[in-house]
Amino acid sequence: MANSPAGVVEAAFQYYMAQDRDAAFPLYADDFTFTSPQDDHIDKAAFFERCFPTAGRLKEQRLLHITPADDELVFAYYQYELTTGEKHHNVEAITVRDGLIREVQVFFGGKV
């Protein structure tokens, strides 16, 4: 499972919460793109500069479902709690090819 797309996604989430950039960085392809309501197709360097360091604003993040859609696409549904106490749900559509994360598209959910 660790080398499956779902396993790669789980590892990426764990490294994010642990803020282990050295472990996370090799999981992402050189041509990786990240899109969210706040970011439009940013590259790997911008993702690791702007987005990866944000785990400090979280009290907790729990993966609720990791669902493979096909051989490359994985949906990650998770809940997180901010240090302010607010809780939210998000979904990410993550493309993993040849063991590397190629693309992440984040869909923001509402407060829980």
Summarize the structure.
The chain is α+β, with helices and mostly antiparallel strands and 112 residues long.
Describe the structure in your own words.
With 112 residues, the chain is of the alpha+beta class. The protein has one domain: Nuclear Transport Factor 2, Chain: A. It is built from three helices and six strands, in the order ααββαββββ. A six-stranded mixed sheet has the order 2-1-6-5-4-3. The radius of gyration is 13 Å and the shape is globular. It starts with a helix and ends with a strand. The mean pLDDT is 96.
Q: What global shape is seen? A: globular
CATH architecture group name: Roll
Alpha-beta classification: alpha+beta
Domains (count):
1
What name is given to the CATH topology?
Nuclear Transport Factor 2, Chain: A
Query: In CATH's first tier, which class applies?
Result: Alpha Beta
Radius of gyration: 13 Å
Measured between the Cα atoms of the first and last residue, the distance is 30 Å
- How many distinct beta strands? 6
Largest sheet: 6 strands, mixed
User: How many individual helices?
Assistant: 3
Average pLDDT figure? 96
- Order of the strands making up the biggest sheet: 2-1-6-5-4-3
Give the low-confidence spans: none
Order of helices and strands: HHEEHEEEE
Protein name: SnoaL-like domain-containing protein
